[in-house]
Design brief:
Elements: E1 18-21, E2 24-27, H1 28-32, E3 36-41, H2 48-59, H3 61-66, E4 69-75, H4 79-93, E5 101-103, H5 108-112, E6 134-139, E7 145-151, H6 159-174, E8 177-178, E9 189-191, H7 197-203, E10 208-211, E11 214-217
The structure holds benzoic acid.
Benzoic acid (BEZ) is lined by residues 43-44, 47-50, 122-123, 153-154.
């Protein structure tokens, strides 16, 4: 089946769009500029899990800033509703939401980004129209999609994990490394399979070979820990 739509695959360009947000109108690619971006949707305003999620994202704002990541939320409600709900998010979580939230009541952007849920009959608006699911897109400064994920309405996301992926991607873009399971900033990394042992000796002095295809090295640029 052929489609004109830009596929939302890792490595494809994140579709551009115009949107109304709680901080004014944006053109998405201009909003991203030279930063990284996290575009995340949630089912609806004034819902319990979403209220906790947006509180967590607001609290993590300094960590996104440190990493040059702009965060932008989206739900299928209007601006007025968003503005009222932000007051609740701030109050309940003792935070100040500083990132914009896209008003997508007509589902134009959520359709473009395939965020709508046609399966979960508990996630419909009063007219029976699907709300958005909990989608996340990590997008790099070239506007390339680097991560996609989709969670059900019933399960709040772990935003520390999203930050962890940003750390892994940014480190991997600067160094010829990958990161192992459960890796976190400061842990040893894996020498990229494309790096020969000769190159590794220069790039990662003291790297350790567990198997010819599994070589560990200290994280480039990590602060030395004192015993
Ligand atoms: C919630 O955020 O709690 C929620 C939203 C839609 C469906 C189910 C739960």
């Amino acid at each position: 089946m052929s489609t004109d739509r830009n596929p939302l695959r890792l490595g494809s360009i994140a579709p551009n769009f115009d949107a109304e947000t709680t901080q004014g109108p944006i053109k998405f690619h201009d909003f991203i500029g030279n930063s990284w971006a996290i575009l995340f949707s949630h089912p609806a305003d004034f819902t319990p899990v979403c209220t906790t999620e947006l509180g967590v994202v607001a609290r993590l704002q300094p960590k996104f800033d440190e990493r040059n990541v702009k965060v932008i939320g989206l739900s299928a409600n209007g601006l007025e509703s968003h503005q009222e709900w932000i007051k609740d998010i701030n109050e309940v979580n003792n935070v100040e939401v500083k990132f914009p939230i896209i008003a997508d009541a007509d589902r134009k952007i959520s359709t473009l980004y395939d965020m709508l849920d046609y399966q979960d009959l508990t996630n419909l608006d009063a007219k029976g129209i699907p709300f958005t699911v909990r989608s996340v897109f990590i997008i790099d400064p070239k506007k390339t999609i680097r991560l996609t994920l989709s969670y059900p309405a019933s399960t709040g996301r772990n935003f520390d994990e999203i930050l962890r992926v940003v750390d892994s991607l940014q480190l991997g873009d600067k160094n010829r490394i990958t990161t192992p399971a459960n890796w976190k900033d400061g842990d040893d990394v894996i020498v990229h399979p494309s790096v020969s042992n000769e190159e590794a000796a220069t790039l990662f002095p003291g790297f350790k070979t567990v198997k010819p295809y599994l070589r560990f090295a200290s994280q480039p640029g990590a602060k030395a820990t004192t015993a």
